[in-house]
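User: Okay, second chain of the day. Same drill as before: sequence in, C-alpha cells out.
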Amino acid sequence: MPYAVGMSISIHDVSVPVFANSLRNMAAWLDKAASEKPEAELLFGRLAPDMRPLPAQYQMASDSAKNAVARLAGIEAPAMPDVEASFAELKERCARTIAFVEGVDPAALATGAEREVELKFPNGMGYRFTGQAYLTGFALPNFFFHVTTAYAILRGAGVSLGKPDFLQHLGPPNIQPAR
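Assistant: Same drill. C-alpha cells below.
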C-alpha cells in the first residue's frame, strides 16, 4: 500500500513511543525470566564470548534511547552509571529511561530532524548526521541491536519468551474473527 505523498510523522512519534514500549517490554522479560530461572544464572549470560552480558545489553539499550532523545532535543541526557547488578536494578533503569524520554517536551523534538548530531568515539573518529538520518540510520538500529540481543540471551538460556513478549506493547489482537 503506498503511503500518502507529503505525509509527515514527527521525530517524537518515531522515537519516544518506540523506545518506551520496548523498554517496558524488556522490563517485563525480566519478570518472566525471574519466574523461570535463577537470576544469578542469567545475569552473566551472553551470546558469544566477545559480546557483553545481559546487564550491559539493558544498559546500552537505555543509553541508546536516552541519548538519542536528548541529542534530537538538543538537551543533556541524564547520567546513568552502568552499575546495575540485579533484575530489580535493571527494571529501575528501564523505568528511569522511560520517564526521561517521555518527559521530554515533544516541541523540543520538533526541530530534531534538521538538528546536526555528531557522534565522536574515544579514538577521535565518528559520524555527523542530520537528526533524521541519526535516528533512522543509527539510533533506532543500535537500540534494537541491544534489545534483540537481550531477548536472545534470555531466550537462549531457556526463558519462554516468544514474539508476543517482544511485541507485548501491542496488547491482545484488536480484530476478532466473525462468528
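Residues 131-156 form the longest helix (26 residues).

User: Thanks, on to the next one.
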